[in-house]
């Protein structure tokens, strides 16, 4: 099996390429401009694995939620690769990458969005493997505390700073997302027949962009 996968939902850019029994995973940290790094990294990965795009059985793509700019770059790249050759796509929630390898009964993955707001998704666990129990959400800290979160759930954060507004809740820091975790997610989905046409690929845009918010403020719209 030959495939490629990308997650560009945060400042940590994940790439994975597999050519039968040869695998290459790449993690780029603190990426500020995904568009600068992603295309050259994909090119180098394919060359290293000695395979061409048209040979791919499928392409995996993290669809967020997360960085709006990063997601646009990643999804545009996948569309550019898949569309000419009609390659099927596996889309996956990027928060799932943070939920793996935690031996819990239930948990909520938390990722900071704009100031005072968090992306979140709830999971139950089968061993160390997370099973989502609902679609991702995007809510204010106050709303999360007033009804969405419970004290029976462990909150999973990406870093210590994100925990500061949730004192009194059980919490832990997620293991860094990795190409290996991404591989587990997309291979399981591919084997289950969960591919989509690349034309159906779209991100989880749960929060509005800064440009949209500024336009609404200027024109007196509610945010």
From TrEMBL:
Domain Gcp-like: 33-145
Gene Ontology BP terms: tRNA threonylcarbamoyladenosine modification
Gene3D superfamilies hit by this protein: 3.30.420.200, 3.30.420.40
Superkingdom, natural source: Bacteria
Protein name per its UniProtKB record: Peptidase M22 glycoprotease
């Amino acid at each position: 099996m030959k495939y490629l996968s990308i997650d560009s939902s945060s400042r940590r850019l994940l790439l994975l390429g597999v050519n039968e029994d040869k695998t290459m995973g790449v993690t780029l940290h603190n990426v500020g401009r995904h568009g600068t790094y992603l295309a050259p990294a994909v090119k180098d990965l394919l060359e290293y694995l000695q395979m061409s795009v048209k040979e791919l059985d499928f392409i995996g793509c993290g669809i967020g939620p997360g960085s709006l700019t990063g997601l646009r770059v990643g999804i545009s790249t996948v569309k550019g690769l898949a569309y000419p050759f009609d390659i099927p796509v596996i889309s996956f929630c990027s928060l799932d990458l943070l939920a793996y390898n935690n031996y819990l009964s239930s948990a909520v993955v938390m990722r900071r969005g704009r100031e005072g707001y968090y992306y979140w998704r709830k999971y139950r666990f089968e061993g160390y493997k997370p099973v989502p129990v609902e679609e991702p959400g995007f809510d204010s800290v106050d709303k999360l505390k007033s009804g969405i979160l419970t004290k029976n759930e462990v909150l999973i954060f990406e870093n210590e700073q994100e925990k500061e507004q949730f004192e009194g809740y059980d919490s832990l820091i997620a293991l860094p997302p990795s190409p290996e975790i991404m591989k587990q997610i997309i291979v399981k989905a591919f084997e289950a027949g969960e591919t989509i046409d690349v034309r159906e690929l779209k991100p989880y845009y749960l929060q509005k962009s800064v440009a949209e918010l500024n336009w609404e403020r200027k024109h007196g719209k509610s945010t």
